[in-house]
Specification:
With about 300 residues, the protein is an alpha/beta fold. The protein has nine helices and eleven strands. The model has no long low-confidence stretch (mean pLDDT about 85).
């Protein structure tokens, strides 16, 4: 069986278009179509329903594609292991990370990864949690940094550190006079939150349920920086993870942050990878670098 035919079929399943699939595989459309037909002939089943406007997989085609992804993942893992056996510092690691963590954590960790593995190619994918998990399962990523819990028993989760939340508010907000925020202080407060799909939104909603706060329903931010600027514009208050207020992030005019009185709400960041990954040993080494993050970075600033 030609593994390139499997690659063509999996790509076609992703894009649902023969021309686009051929372009992504760097072959002509007739070559791609011919290889998929040969695969169907070898298996003795129809894998693809072809029509002028739409490409669909048959039910057996869907099953074959799922198995094909595993085969391609194993082949890529074999190549990575071979490269790394020749030179442990070389190779490529595809790492997913969600947007409310990536810009605030990576500047503190990437220099050490570069120092330890100077020839490593680190490919970073900044996506929402749901998309990262899907990419992990499909083999598009080798590992990811996510907030626990991760509801998928096919994945390994290694906790790295706990990141406390702080309350961000305009300078003249009544809570700004307090050195610490008690959970009951948020009762009846209206919080600005991110749009659906961000794990920080889900974490903030948990705090709302604990405290009796509620979200501002007529506003959903698309990013942490939008939240920051809306608070500074006296639109409301919000929760922010501690790393998002530490250097190299510059202070924002008319925005102050206050820590929660211990024990306050926090999120646990973990390194996540497939249980079947052939790169587990190397991923664990990278996880150790992330878990060695300077503890001072995880301490909320005093009022």
């Amino acid at each position: 069986m030609n593994f390139r035919a499997i690659q063509y079929l999996v790509t076609l399943a992703d894009v649902r278009h023969f021309s686009k699939a051929a372009e992504q595989c760097y072959v002509s459309q007739p070559t791609l179509s011919t290889q998929i037909r040969k695969l169907e002939e070898e298996l003795g089943v129809q894998l693809v329903e072809r029509s002028p406007r739409q490409v669909m997989l048959t039910p057996i085609g869907e099953e074959i594609v799922q198995r094909g992804r595993s085969i391609l993942n194993d082949i890529e893992a074999m190549r990575s292991i071979a490269r790394r056996s020749r030179d442990p510092d070389s190779g490529t690691l595809r790492l997913g990370i969600f947007p409310t963590l990536a810009p605030y954590l990576l500047p503190h960790v990437i220099p050490e990864i570069r120092r330890r593995f100077p020839r490593l190619t680190l490919r970073l994918f900044e996506e929402k949690t749901e998309d990262i998990i899907d990419m992990l399962e499909r083999g598009s990523l080798d590992a990811a940094l996510l907030a626990m819990p991760i509801p998928d028993d096919r994945l390994v989760c290694q906790a790295l550190f706990e990141e406390p939340f702080v309350v961000a508010m305009p300078e003249q907000h009544p809570l700004a006079s307090k050195a610490f925020i008690d959970l009951q202080d948020l009762e009846q407060q209206e919080l600005l939150l991110l749009e659906d799909g961000h794990c920080l939104r889900d974490q903030a909603l948990e705090v709302c349920h604990m405290t009796g706060a509620h979200e501002k329903l007529d506003f959903h931010a698309t990013s942490m920086e939008t939240l920051r600027q809306m608070v500074a514009a006296n639109t409301g208050i919000t929760l922010m993870p501690t790393l998002a207020i530490k250097p190299p992030v510059a202070p924002t005019e008319n925005l102050v942050v206050r820590p929660f009185r211990e024990p306050g709400p926090r999120r646990t960041i973990a390194m996540v990878w497939r249980k079947t990954s052939a790169l587990q040993g190397f991923i664990a080494q990278i996880a150790d670098i992330f878990s060695a993050l300077d503890e001072e970075l995880l301490k909320p600033p005093p009022a």
